C-alpha cells in the first residue's frame, strides 16, 4: 500500500506554506488548495484541479452545474492555459521543508523530495494523491482488474487481459454461459408454443430452399463482375505503362527544381539574417548607464496595428553606473482569459551577472520604478514599482548569466496603446522609463 506524507499534498491540489498570500482565484473551488493541472468549467468559469473535476463534478447527462445551477446537455470544461501562466509566475514556499521558488520548480521539488506515494504493482512514485489515484485506476499496466465475465472470478493484470480472454478456462466458461443462454431461449420458445415446432422447422427449410434458388444467379452476376474488373485492370495497366516514362521525366524535373528552390531558400535565409542584424543594430552595442537622475528611457517601436498581435521585446543591457549592477528589461503583451478577455502591457526586469558583483551589496536593495511615458504636454505618466524586498530570490547575486525575471504582469491595459488618440504611442513609438530609487525618495505613483 502507498505511504503518504499528508503535510505535503492533500486531495486534488498542492498544499503550500504561504497559501494566504496567494490570489484566491488560483485555488481550487473543491479542495481549496493550490490548483494542480487546472481546468475551467465553460458554464460559469469555475476553476478546479483536473482530478477534482473528474471526481467531484459528476458527468451526468443532462449536466447541472453544482456551482451556478446551469443545465447543459453535458459537462463542458477545458484546460485553463491562462491560469497555468499565472501559476508559473507566483512564488511558493514548500509546506514540508524550507524550499521556496516558482510553481513549476515546486512540482519538480515535490517529485524529487516528497514523492511519498508508491504504486504497489509497478513501484512508480508520485507526489500527489490525484496523480497516484489516476495511475492506479487508469494508467498502470500492472494493476489487477476483474475479468467481468459472469462465473469468472479471476483478477488479471491489465497487460495480460488479452491472453486471459484466449485462455482455456475463460473460453470454457464463455462456452458454458452461451450454451445456457441458448438453452433457456429454446426452452422458453418451446414452452410458449409446443405444438408449432414442426411447422417452424418446415418454414425455416422453405426459406433455406428459396435462398439456395437465388445462389446460381448471384454466382453468374459475380462472374460477370470479375470479367469486367479484369478488363478494367488490363486497361489501367496499359495506361500505367504509358505514363511511367513521363513520370520519370517529371521526377527529374522536380529534383532539379528542388535544388534550385533550396539555393533560393538559403539565399533568402541569409537575407533575413542580414535584415535582423540591421534591425538589432539600432541598439547600442555597449552597456548603457543611468543618467544623472538615476533614470534610463527606452524607445519601443510598435505600430498600432502590431499591438493587436502578441509581442515580446527585450531592451539592451544597462548598468546603474560604470561600476554598478547590470540589468535588462523585457516588455510584452499578456492576455488573461476569463468571462471577458483582458489584455495588459507587462514589464519584467532581470538582474544580470556583472563584472563588479564581487564588491556590490546583494540582494539588490533598491526599488525599481517603471513608467509608461505620456508624450503629450499633460505628462500623465503611468508609474508602478517593483519592490525588491518582495522578490529576494530574483535579486540575489547571479550564479548564472542572469537571474529569473520579476515584474508587473498587469502594468497597464493594452487599450492605452491601441487607442488611435493615445498619448502614450506616437508615430509608432512608446517609451518605457526605468528609475532606480537609490535615495528611497518613493515618487508618487499615477
Helix and strand arrangement:
Elements lengths: L37 E4 L5 E3 H7 L6 E2 L6 E2 L4 E3 L1 H7 L3 E3 L6 E3 H11 L3 E2 L6 E2 L2 H11 L4 E3 L8 E3 L3 H5 L2 H25 L4 H84 L7 E2 L5 E7 L10 E3 L3 E2 L6 E11 L5 E11 L15 E5 L9 E5 L19 E8 L1 H4 L10 E8 L10
Parallel strand pairs: 12-15
Antiparallel strand pairs: 1-2, 1-5, 3-4, 6-7, 8-9, 10-11, 13-21, 14-16, 15-16, 16-17, 17-20, 18-19, 18-21
- Specify the oligomeric state: single chain
Q: What amount of the residues lies in strands?
A: 15-25%
Estimated helix fraction: 25-40%
Uncertain runs: 1-10, 194-198
Q: Supply the CATH class of the domain at 288-436.
A: Mainly Beta
Radius of gyration: 36 Å
Count the strands? 21
- Category by helix and strand content: alpha+beta
CATH level-two architecture of the domain at 288-436: Sandwich
CATH superfamily of the domain at 288-436: Apoptosis, Tumor Necrosis Factor Receptor Associated Protein 2, Chain A
- How would a textbook summarize the main sheet? 6 strands, mixed
Shape: extended
Order of helices and strands: EEHEEEHEEHEEHEEHHHEEEEEEEEEHE
Enumerate how many helices there are, as a single number: 8
Domain MATH: 293-436
Pfam family, one: TRAF-mep_MATH
Organism: Rotaria magnacalcarata
Protein name: MATH domain-containing protein
Structure notes:
With 446 residues, the chain is α+β, with helices and mostly antiparallel strands. Among the domains are: 19-144, Zinc/RING finger domain, C3HC4 (zinc finger) (Herpes Virus-1); 288-436, Apoptosis, Tumor Necrosis Factor Receptor Associated Protein 2, Chain A (Sandwich), CATH 2.60.210.10. The protein is 35% helix and 21% strand. The chain has helices at 50-56, 81-87, 103-113, 129-139, 161-165, 168-192, 197-280, 415-418, and strands at residues 38-41, 47-49, 63-64, 71-72, 77-79, 91-93, 100-102, 117-118, 125-126, 144-146, 155-157, 288-289, 295-301, 312-314, 318-319, 326-336, 342-352, 368-372, 382-386, 406-413, 429-436. The strands form seven sheets. Strands 12, 14, 15, 16, 17 and 20 form a six-stranded mixed sheet that branches. It has a four-stranded antiparallel sheet with strand order 13-21-18-19, with no helix packed on it. It has a three-stranded antiparallel sheet with strand order 2-1-5. Strand 3 and strand 4 form a beta hairpin. The longest helix is centred in the middle third of the chain and has 84 residues, at 197-280. The radius of gyration is 36 Å and the shape is extended. The two termini are 59 Å apart.
